[in-house]
Amino acid sequence: MANLVFIHASDGSNAALAGEVEGYAVKQGHTVEHVSLNAYDFPMYTVKTEKETEVLPGLAELTAVLDRGDAWFVFAPEYNGSYPPVLNNAIAWLSRDGNDFRRLFRDRTVALATHSGGGGQHVIMAMRMQFSFLGCVVVGRSLVVNKKKPPNPETIEAMLKSMTRR
Fold first, then answer.
1. Where does the pLDDT of residue 100 fall: very low under 50, low under 70, confident under 90, or very high at 90 and above?
2. Radius of gyration in angstroms for the set of CA atoms belonging to the chain, rounded to a whole number
3. Helices and strands (H and E) in the chain: how many
4. Residue 30 in contact with residue 2, Cβ under 8 Å?
5. How confident is the model at residue 119 (pLDDT cuts 50, 70, 90)?
């Protein structure tokens, strides 16, 4: 089966949602690795910082984990109508690693989820646009959860199947 990487762009409700989705993935026979982007604590990406940073601690490790994944499931809260800065910053650093900014992302299947205090559709749209631009194959269905709307098991199972049938 597939090795899935679950990327958390927060350590609260979205990390808990990832843990819940993991149960479904394991039942389908997949392995799951979790990545909390907050654990890396990368400095804010700027061209100046990149030039001053010979080796960014943790970047090679993060790249290796993501590279091992057959597909990624990204869990991010809505942050001012988009995705959180920690996700944007990680993408910036990852895309600057090496000579081909799309290498890590190209043809990678990515599913999107949010546990949002708001509607959640803005973060899904923003992530869909970003990951598509980077060359990922973004799963058409998304998982949107909030305090009044629990995760739909049928959606989770369908998304996992879409992620792993290639």
1. confident
2. 15
3. 6, 5
4. yes
5. confident
Phi, psi of 145 (to 5 degrees): -130, 150
Q: Domain spanning 3-164: which superfamily?
A: Flavodoxin domain (3.40.50.360)
102 CB neighbour count, 10 Å cutoff: 14
Q: Which residues contact 2 (CB under 8 A, 6 or more apart)?
A: 30, 31, 70, 71, 163, 164
Q: What angle do CA 105, 95, 10 make, to 5 degrees?
A: 80
In this structure, are residues 43 and 49 in contact, taking their beta carbons and an 8 Å threshold? yes
Tell me the whole-structure pTM to 2 decimals.
0.95
Domain map of the chain by residue range? Answer: 3-164
* DSSP SS3 for 149: strand
Is-contact 37 90, C-beta < 8 A? yes
Two structure tokens written together for 23:
């149960």
Q: 164 phi and psi, to 5 degrees?
A: -115, 5
Quick one: pLDDT at residue 166? 58
Over the stretch 14-42, which tens digit does the pLDDT of each residue have? 999 999 999 999 999 999 999 999 999 99
Entry field: residues in the chain: 166
